[in-house]
């Protein structure tokens, strides 16, 4: 039976300057066991003796012994002492000083074909806040302290059913009812609480709808140009994408597309994303007739519907006809803040029960405390009041950005489909400008714009930049706009501005 001499541990303790004494001793004993310096059945000295030999406190040694006993490196034998266990696995020797090696080339992970397709088409940017980032609200303007009071109310003494798996299909009953009342008044949506499913945002809702209603090989109409997130979800579910051109009145399906009925029709009728057009009444009626005749489901993404800066709100497509074949999707990401991760779906009654069950199976919904807090935030009137405040603020910021664009690019620079709504505008660019390259250059300089051409599926594309105005106060907008102009002038010198505009640009650049 072997015993331990403290010289080995003293050497290894000295090789670890700067660490705490407990950590140094733990690492020294463990490393000695792993590299065979302390072979199985080696007896360790009593904690008092080892502490005296190493000039450590006995408590430090005892804690190390206890940790190594718990991890299975040591075993205690009654009346005999502490020993290195026989069950330490055979491991290659561990060098006392790590050897510096050249990194070996790493093979790409073996992703599925769908996984590789998703990565190849991924468009979500690493930065989601800053000058001209489209589709993001001013999260700093949300009444966080007020909302925290509602969260605290439900967090102080939460009911058990709010902390376990969600036993009620669809989400919080209170939030479902609050949405029924709000959507009826604000969006002309007609539904019962049992038709509303609370989700973790738009993407989860789209994925659920696609999984449950489409078989591999089915077709879906999508807007051209349209939201890239919808396209990726359809690809991942083996659904064929059929782009349908959008004009100033919305989606316009040609006659030859009607020969193959789509399973799903995705539209943003209240504020088309990204161009901004509003679907006309005749187009809405035409689309509803097509869906009824061909047995299709319309998926209405009510994008940015709350933020119209002139005229009356546009009623939803869902509420246009009783029993319409429309799945209505909304989110709180634009009206409150994206990090809340709460959205909702209004299903036609024949689909609702199955969708609630499927959602519970796929995603195991939760966040009931946040849902109940939001329900009371809505019913007490704070949600509508917040939207009214932000509508006024965003209207001023939009006017400021539009004025800058017209000042430097002329009256025709805004896309002609742009309506006085939403959280972004589209700046049109000449065909010779590579909007993808320009956006990348601007992003490197902290100006977050998105290239319009990336929203097209087909070969016929318009070039331009999506520019959000909601996150940037008017007093900061001119400086950020000057950076964008400088990027254009540097990389596309043929787009020289007039002398007057040059002076305006110089004034708007950062000092």
UniProtKB/TrEMBL annotation:
Domain HTH gntR-type: 19-87
Keyword tRNA processing on entry: no
Gene3D superfamilies reported for this sequence: Type I PLP-dependent aspartate aminotransferase-like (Major domain), Winged helix-like DNA-binding domain superfamily/Winged helix DNA-binding domain
Keywords on record: DNA-binding, Pyridoxal phosphate, Transcription, Transcription regulation
Disordered, as annotated region: 85-110
UniProt GO MF annotations: DNA binding; DNA-binding transcription factor activity; pyridoxal phosphate binding
PROSITE patterns, alphabetized: HTH_GNTR
Pfam hit, one: Aminotran_1_2
Domain of life of the source: Bacteria
Similarity remark: In the C-terminal section; belongs to the class-I pyridoxal-phosphate-dependent aminotransferase family.
Protein name per UniProt: Decarboxylase
